[in-house]
Each structure stands twice: as C-alpha cells, then as structure tokens.
Automatic annotation (TrEMBL):
Segments forming domain UPF3: 1-78
Protein name: Nonsense-mediated decay UPF3
Membrane-spanning ranges: none
Main localization category: nucleus
Organism of derivation: Gonapodya prolifera (strain JEL478)
GO MF entries: mRNA binding
Length: 78
C-alpha cells in the first residue's frame, strides 16, 4: 500500500518520519509489515477523486458485466 501525506511544517514531517520509518505493523494474521517513509522531491499531492477539479468521466462499461457474453460463459462453467 502507498499513502501520500501532506505536512504543513518541517517539524511535523521530521517527527512523523522519526516515529514511523521502520515501524513494524502486524495484521490480524500475524504478518509483519515494515513502514518506509520517503521524502518526495515533487511536492504536489495527487488529487483524490472527491477533490478533483474536473469531474471524472464515467466508464461506459460500468455496470455491464452481467450482460457480457464472456463473463456469462465463465459463470456457466462454475
């Protein structure tokens, strides 16, 4: 997974990096994941879907899988 965080001060960024870089997270199954904090040389934060300036064009294939011949054939073989 990847997350983009936008800090308003260098002090907050330094504190976050010192606390979480190398921190080990354990999920419900006992798997260990080590966090890596990296600084981005390009300081723009990617827009989220809700904050995008232009509304995203809806995919014309959205909600059509139940009419797709290949998908229906696949379901018949299950």
């Amino acid at each position: 997974s990847r997350a983009y965080l936008n800090f308003t001060s260098l002090d907050a960024l330094a504190h976050f990096a010192s606390e979480f870089n190398g921190h080990s997270f354990i999920d419900s199954k006992g798997n260990h994941f080590r966090a890596i904090v990296e600084f981005s040389p390009f300081q723009r934060v990617p827009p989220s879907a809700s904050s995008a300036k232009k509304p995203r064009r809806q995919d014309p294939r959205q909600n059509t899988i139940d009419r797709d011949a290949d998908y229906l054939a696949f379901l018949e073989h299950l």
